[in-house]
Amino acid sequence: MIKERNTKQKSLILSAVRGTKTHPTAEEVHLMLSDSVQGLSLGTVYRNLNHMAESGQIRRISVTNSPDRFDGDISPHHHICCNTCGKFCDFFDTDYDTSLDKVIEEKSGFTLIKHETVFYGLCPECNLNQKN
Amino acid sequence: MIKERNTKQKSLILSAVRGTKTHPTAEEVHLMLSDSVQGLSLGTVYRNLNHMAESGQIRRISVTNSPDRFDGDISPHHHICCNTCGKFCDFFDTDYDTSLDKVIEEKSGFTLIKHETVFYGLCPECNLNQKN
DNA sequence: TTCTTAATAGTAATTATTCCTATTAAGGAG
DNA sequence: CTCCTTAATAGGAATAATTACTATTAAGAA
Which residues 109-128 of A are in CB contact (within 8 Å) with B? Predict the structure, then answer.
């Protein structure tokens, strides 16, 4: 009995997200693959990205004033977003604190699946430009 | 020279957001006020909520699979979202760690304005229902 | 090779939010 | 208090992001 099928689209979408650090939006993933898969549907990209995010293979990150982004790196790290130019980058913290999940589970009664932290501010370039 | 005018809409929108702990969406704020302000425009609600969020009077929180929410409580705290029913609640941590902002500013070169952390999981009720 | 059906392509529909413009009204000046 | 400038609003159109729908395709088990 089949549960899930391996398609060319599926594996290419996963490779694309894993192969970049740009945290692409669904539309950007679609663009990245438009050459290799002729006729790739944006709906297919969305469906697969959502499945992969739900199964924990990738991360889906909701950002204010931006379409959702996807990250192939599921190791614990933060994200920083520039409010002016939208630049979106990783921040790897050697002391990344995962203990809060357990504390919150105990105190709130929730069963937690994940958390996402996004820092908002001005990137160095936009900071300079603003001063002019 | 005038810079900003105080309107009935503006003050009622701010009161509405500050007067609830439900983290309403723009549409929900619009609904809350539809009785007191006849003809209140949804665009006006969005515009004011955005201004207030930009000026730091309230918080705007982007959540996966949900329209943005607004919080009148700007004191440092986290949010927990139920992936099944969408329930959205506060989590006040006595040890809320704000030191990471400074560390990230130093290491990334960004000037940070704020950060938002959302925990995703299953609320106690949905957790029970799932087991049945 | 055949057959079942999961997955896709393509498009329509929905949702969330912003943009546009004529009109209203806040509040400073006279 | 009245007038005047223009910030802010109402209402609706436009845009952006994402999901839903359906006929068709193609995994992969038998």
Answer: 109-124, 127
